[in-house]
Task: inverse folding
């Protein structure tokens, strides 16, 4: 399963990629939303992990761009955000509403098991 992770926190991104790769995922990390979207267009992933608060392009703006792209519009997106408390976040209980569409969210900080469980749930792995 291919995953594109977009997050401006390089340290978190690289660590998360290592964890996911050990679990058998093919993960590509990008610390700029524009680069991540461009890569996803070339090699469509099974899931996008999207940080919501980034300086150059917000996760919300990136999601809007993805949803207007014919190749990417159906790719599931799991939001990563400090806006949702990690300990309180359960699959299906928290989400982010963008243009009337619900996107599941995983609060930062998250632990490995929480991340893997969320990914498995949304990919039905």
Result:
């Amino acid at each position: 399963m291919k995953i594109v992770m977009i997050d401006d926190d390089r340290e978190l991104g690289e660590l998360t990629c290592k964890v996911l790769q050990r679990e058998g995922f093919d993960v590509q990390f990008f610390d700029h939303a524009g680069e991540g979207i461009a890569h996803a267009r070339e090699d469509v992933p099974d899931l996008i992990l999207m940080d919501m608060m980034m300086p150059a392009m917000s996760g919300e703006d990136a999601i809007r761009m993805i949803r207007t792209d014919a190749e990417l519009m159906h790719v599931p997106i799991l939001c990563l955000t400090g806006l949702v408390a990690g300990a309180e976040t359960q699959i299906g209980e928290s989400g982010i509403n963008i243009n009337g569409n619900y996107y599941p969210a995983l609060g930062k900080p998250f632990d490995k098991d929480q991340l893997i469980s969320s990914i498995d749930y949304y990919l039905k792995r």
Summary: The helical segments are 10-22, 33-42, 59-67, 112-123. The beta strands are 2-6, 26-30, 47-51, 77-81, 95-98, 101-107. The first strand starts at residue 2 and ends at 6. The mean pLDDT is 87.
